[in-house]
Amino acid sequence: MADQPYAHGILGNWAVVGYGFNIASIVSSVFVITTVAIACIRIRDMYNTTSFRLSAWIAACDTVYSACQLCVFDNGYMSSLSEMNLRVIHWLMSGSTMSFVFMSASVALHVVVVRFTKYKHIVERIQPWYEFVSLLVGFVLTHPILYLYKMLQWSSRAQIFHIYDDPAYYNLTSWLTKWSWLFAACVFMFACMVYQAVVMLKTSKEVVNAGKSNMYLERGCYLDDANYAPISTNPKNSTSSVTLRLMLYPAVPLLTQIWVLAANMSPNCPMWLYVMANLAPAIQGVINLLIFTSNPAWDRHRRKWSKKNLPGYISEFSTLKGSSIGSTDADLESSCDLSRPATLKS
User: Fold this and answer.
1) Residue 5 lies in a domain
2) Other CB atoms closer than 10 Å to residue 229's CB: what's the count?
3) Which one, 20, 72, 155, 292, has least CB within 10 Å?
């Protein structure tokens, strides 16, 4: 490997930073998977919470990607692999990325349909299939890397997979199998976030102007018995809070994959963009752990723990807010769980 400008390739010391990010992401993802497994075993109803269940599958995708990227940052190891092993690593990284993005898009779709439309019965039917379809489509779409192209080798200097084939053919197939889907998913998630922000802002203004927030019925917010009912005198503290936290899930791929898209769309990728395209996805596992801790599925259990262990704080908080935290009020936000499908009983 005499052509290497640095021990870790062109990334140099940034590869060491990438090692740290990927290890942190793997540890974070394993923690999320373990927590979800234990929670679902002890509290079976937690598995029916869509965003909570998807958190474990997203963490699994992050684990696969970070484990593969640890290999990518090691030029010596990558240079020693056979072509088929390189193709498998390339496929695992691409498939796990696409599956993660599709699952995040599923959360965005779920929230928008439940929160802002009348088609909640559709969500009931499709929500159990989110992770299966995301994994299947993600890995099937990207699997042609296993047999397409004349030759695939590891470039130590550029620290990338170097594909030997007609450039026009490579650009066409790569966009058909990965980049166009990634771009479309990111556009969809961004549109969902913008639409949600506009609707929530408009709704908040209407409630304030009408002066009837106590009679406001949050669309898409339902109690555990699946009946729609007024749940809060302040919409911002109920459904809006849950919605905003759930929409953090699709925000992650927008923050991390935009650099990868930009680097691959740029004819002459600058060094800073190349570094960001390598490091941003490496931190996905840590970001998803932070979002997981704020998942609305935890709200009821956090309140129960607080009432049991911090009664003085709860009492003081209730006094400051000017309202009591009764058994019903304590469960409002968690029962207003947009991460589960709703049914409207007649």
Assistant:
1) no
2) 12
3) 20
Residues forming a β-bridge with 163: 152
Q: What pLDDT, in 10s, does the model give residues 278-289? A: 999 999 999 999
Q: What is the pTM of this model?
A: 0.79
User: Where are the alpha helices (H) located in the chain, listed in sequence order?
Assistant: 14-42, 50-72, 75-80, 83-116, 120-126, 130-142, 167-174, 180-210, 239-246, 248-265, 271-279, 284-293, 299-309, 311-321, 327-330, 332-335
CATH of the domain at 195: 1.20.1070.10
Number of domains in the chain: 1
- What are the residues whose beta carbons fall under 8 Å from the beta carbon of 26, sequence distance 6 or more? 62, 63, 66, 67, 285
CA–CA separation, 249 vs 338, rounded Å?
13
Mean local confidence (pLDDT), 78-88: 91
Is the residue at 119 inside a domain?
yes
User: How much of the chain exceeds pLDDT 90, in percent?
Assistant: 39
Q: For residues 286 and 240, is the Cβ–Cβ distance under 8 A?
A: no
Task: Please enumerate, as own/partner, the contacts of 81-89 that have beta carbons within 8 Å and a separation of 24 or more.
Answer: 81/154, 83/151, 83/152, 83/153, 84/146, 86/152, 86/153, 86/154, 86/161, 87/145, 87/146, 87/147, 87/152, 88/146
Instruction: Confirm whether 340 is domain-assigned.
Output: no
Q: What is the pLDDT of residues 122-136, one digit of tens each?
A: 888 888 899 999 999
pLDDT of 98-120, one tens digit each?
999 999 999 999 988 888 788 88
Which structural domain range is residue 240 located in?
14-335
Residues 234, 235, 238, 244, CA torsion sign = negative
Mean pLDDT on 220-233? 34
